[in-house]
Design a protein that fits this description.
- The protein has one domain (2-297): monomeric porin ompg (Porin).
- The protein is 8% helix and 50% strand.
- It has 2 helices and 15 strands.
- A hairpin with a 2-residue loop joins strand 3 and strand 4 (100-116).
Length: 310
């Protein structure tokens, strides 16, 4: 199909286009290697684009061996409601590094329309709250009289996000801005007069069916934020019998990893990922570990059929 070839070309060329652009790219929020298992956290438009109630629990422990290393936990769930042509989603995440903790709670709504035969577009919104806390009152500092370290900090900020997601049976492409509202912490410490640059995400992937047993799915994720360095994630996944997945993940200039997951019982999946650093921290830590648990309850709204399935 001509449309499929055009979409595939856009997906594969997307990272190269943005590498050569004047915009600078970054990841403001922590990124999971298994981000495809909780995609609603990145793009609310993905809510309800696959059948059933999809639930996922992820944990990530980064840079083992370093004191105060980052640790991230995320729970997500989403489901379609075919009668109203919409999807609903929920995401709760907590990220901790040293004395700092950042927690997000968001709910997502998506509405789906048909672009052409075999290709749908989902448009999503999300809303929630973000909580930041820093236990800095008990830290050892050079100047104990410094008022910036006299008391713990805590902020609660509302959050809004938006996303678009086009998907068919064998490919997908998406765009999202998961944080339209600036966290108050950023306002406090950003240089005066510097505008807030919300983080954007571009994602795309294609599934090649080798035969009845094997599929190969390359994908990419790009984070975009002005004034920060480039960030591009490239993933290659191999799937066997629709039950076992394994592959490799490369974050350009930052990390390289391997992952494996399997359907151990009905719709219950367990997965593990390992990353090792390619930056200056490579000799200071023993890698990053992730564990993923997902469960899917089919036909809770008498939904039928899947197109792209993460």
């Amino acid at each position: 199909m001509k449309l499929s070839k055009k979409v595939l070309a856009c997906i594969l060329l997307m990272p190269l286009v943005f590498i050569g652009s004047k915009a600078t790219l970054a990841q403001q929020d922590p990124m999971f290697t298994y981000y495809l298992q909780n995609p609603v956290a990145l793009n609310p438009a993905i809510a309800g684009t696959v059948n059933g109630l999809n639930m996922s629990l992820l944990t990530r422990h980064q840079w083992l061996g370093i004191d105060g290393r980052p640790a991230s936990y995320s729970f997500g769930a989403h489901t379609p409601y075919i009668k109203q042509n919409m999807g609903l989603g929920l995401n709760i995440s907590t990220d901790q590094a040293g004395p700092m903790r950042f927690t997000n709670f968001t709910a997502s709504y998506a509405y789906k329309i048909k672009l052409v035969e075999g290709l749908d577009l989902s448009m999503g919104l999300k809303a929630g709250v973000s909580s930041y806390s820093a236990r800095i009152g008990g830290l050892y500092v050079n100047d104990p009289s410094d008022p910036n370290f006299a008391h713990d900090d805590k902020w609660v900020t509302p959050n809004l996000g938006v996303g678009f997601y086009a998907f068919a049976e064998n490919y997908y492409a998406g765009f999202s801005i998961p944080r339209l509202v600036e966290v108050k912490l950023n306002k406090e410490y950003r240089e005066s007069g510097q505008p807030y640059n919300p983080q954007l995400y571009l994602m795309g992937g294609y599934k090649f069916q080798i035969n009845r047993d094997w599929d190969i799915s390359p994908s990419s994720l790009i984070g975009i934020m002005g004034g920060s360095p480039l960030s591009v994630d490239i993933m290659g996944q191999v799937e066997y019998l629709k039950r076992i997945q394994f592959g490799t993940h490369y974050r350009i200039g930052d990390a390289l990893g391997l992952f494996v997951s399997g359907n151990v019982y009905d719709n219950f999946i367990i997965g593990y990922a390992f990353d090792f650093s390619l930056n200056k921290l490579s000799g200071m830590n023993s890698g990053t570990h992730e564990i993923i648990l997902t469960y899917r309850i089919n036909d809770i709204w008498n939904n039928v059929g899947d197109k792209w399935k993460f």
